[in-house]
Amino acid sequence: MIALGSSERKSTVLQGPFLGPRPFEDNELDRKFFFERDQEAADVLDLLLRSRLVVLYGPSGVGKTSLMNAGVFPKLKDRRLEPVPIDFGLVRSRLGVSTGSSVTDCLLQQELIRQIGTRKCAPKPPTDPLKTPDLWSFLRQLDYGSGMVLVFDDFEELFGISQVEQAREFLRLLGCIVSNRVPPEHILAADRQLAAVEAGSKRQAELIELARGSVDIPVRVVICVQESFLPQVQQLQTFIPNVLKTSYRLQPFTQEEAESVILFSLQARNSGISKEDAVRFSKSAIKSIVDFLGARNERVTPDLTSNLQISRPVDPTELQILCQSIFHEALRRNRTPFLYSASLLARLYKRQRLIKTEDLRGETGMRRLLDRYYVQSLRLLPALRLGHNPQGWTPSLSNLLLFNLPRIAMARFCENGLILPNRRNTQVQEVAESQFGVNRSDLDTFVDRRFLVRRDARPGTFFYELASESLAEMLRRFLRRRRSLRNVMVLPLILTCVLLLQFLGWDIGTSEILLPRVPATLHSPIAKYISWRGRPVDLAFAGLAELSLRDVSFNGSKFTNAIMNGAILEGFQANQSMFTGANLESSIIDGSDFISAKLDKTKLSGATFNNSTLSKVNFANSSLKDIKFLSSNLYDSDFTQVISPTGEAPHKVVEFNNSNWWLSKGWDEAARWHFYRQFELRSYVGSVQYEKDYSTRCHNIRTGTTAVDRAAFVVTLAWFILVNGGDLEEAQSYIDQARTLGKDSGGKALDVELSASIEEYQAQMFLRKGNDKAARDLYEWLISGREWPVAAEWRYRYAIVLQHLGEKGAGDMKKSASKDFVFTPTYEQVLFEWDYPPTNNIGRTERCKLPPELESQRKR
Fold first, then answer.
1. Phi-psi region for residue 508, left (φ > 0), alpha (ψ -120 to 50) or beta?
2. Which pTM was predicted?
């Protein structure tokens, strides 16, 4: 039996042996309740002792972190190997808002060095990580005992890091570490320094070892990654040869293992406390729990060597949550029993907490316990609080005039902000506050109590997500059941009210479920009600033919595979929405916004987009025929591999009247040349959409809060005029204003990267005006700068300058931009190659007026 100290005994009495969604940690108390993973821990340890790299993978929530913390780490310490856990989720969060190399170009390695340098095995880390040249050199300088094991948890986060070059450099050095190789640059440096070092000195011996590549760093590496990311890990062969040669898949619990976990956890808890406080589960109850959880799991591993039926595996996270809920119900029995019976009252009198099968209330009762975990987590927050929430006085369901409802705000945040149809979502703290009305103190409560939500610290803010993918799936199932129950109970009543209100002629609003089922005259009022509720809608596979919507916002919604033939959408907003596979044939879309929407694989035959904003819209693989874009903004929209159902060339069945088609991408050279001859560049400047976008940018300038923001908005307006064929003198004046606003009173740039961007726009201006020599000199200075990141667009436009001047290197520079930066040119080829020298530009009688304080600042 396990003996518990007084403090541990009090903790287990109150909290119990089941940890819920949080992983087991590397401490004595957690290890006492960590069962049925001894063989897995021994296998991982054996692999580590035989290899310098082990890839540990498995489904999300299977317990990879717990296995390392409570199973493998103690065994490593017994062999004097220091485990160093590195949370790649935290690494990515710290780099998430970084803009690149404004300070140094090795921010990723700095963060890794910071986490490693806090361990006991590194008593003498560099005081300033900026002075450490790279990760390999830092590990070589450490003071080791027998060795160290780097455990990269959540390694899949590496594939989402925006600093691609830094990630590649890290992977290259990691390959040298696990292969016990000296990086080539260190070998070359050692060769150069040998000639200047005194013969026979200690330094000479060190340099000779480096030059021979015989330096041994006693470091082993464990990569913990979700199995869905194994293809990405396999692609790391370039940096880490045979990366998956030594790998280990962590399986969910079998039903026998799950039963043992429950039994041993209760025995360990009951052995250290009094008999009156003991809680026991009957064998039949344990089997019912395991059978229920196994039936929920769709992941079944077939056994090809046996004819026996394979039992379904059990998700460890769900096991911990359900057992924790049942355990807490047992502790509360002396106050509120959850099954009133004579036998139960007799057990209550004797204070013997024994959970039997009938106490679980079957599958329904256990499912309700899992659902109740989410509901009870919300009850950590008060139902009512005086004052308004962080949304200010924005009217919403959770924010009324004199008081707010924290539980409802947190529920909206979890249900609408933190889960997507197939994965978890991440939200920044400012969005949680401003959009969902969740107080920062409420978020702290959830994070500190380890219910539902985990937090990642980032420079200046925090990012939040659900604690595990298992929790996300539990929440999805809960929402589906609640939605189904609501439909069954409420839909008939709502339909009756709809018919009654339609008969009476009232303006009504109801849920999105009714939208495809009511007459077209009711579409707009119903949709406005949905929009007022402020949450995305799911209209996938819905029949929305002849849908009629006006002035409605469905941002972030789902219209996948919806039938929207003949729809009329005016003033419609569907930013960041999904239309994949939808049918929009013969639809009229007027004055609508589809920013960052996905219209890939969509049928658009006969559709018309008029005065619409289609920035960053994905039309890839869509079917186009007689589609018209009239006075629309197509900045960075993607038409890759679009097709025509009649077999014609797609660019011959598309019209771009008064639209800035040259800002789109995905068209081949023949298509761009056809558009250049068919739709003149100057036409967009006179369109309604141009005026709308121009006014929006002027509004941004007037509402900018900092000098850097104002300068950025001013130069963005200059770029907008420049690339759309507007007045070049007007654009030049805004570039000059931005340059002035972006400097302090001493003439120093307030932001180095913004200053570089302003000068790049100036180089574009020289190129547009035909002053190629000035453009070349400015691009040479920008490309050679190390204080700011060099964009692929800069290299491409620099290549165009060299092409105009007849100088060598233009082709190589274009290839460099396309290959190294995975860059697809949009407007560059048209504006700076074919439309050269530039066409006459349309002047404007009125220009964007700066606020008085900005105007006076510019003049000074």
1. beta
2. 0.52
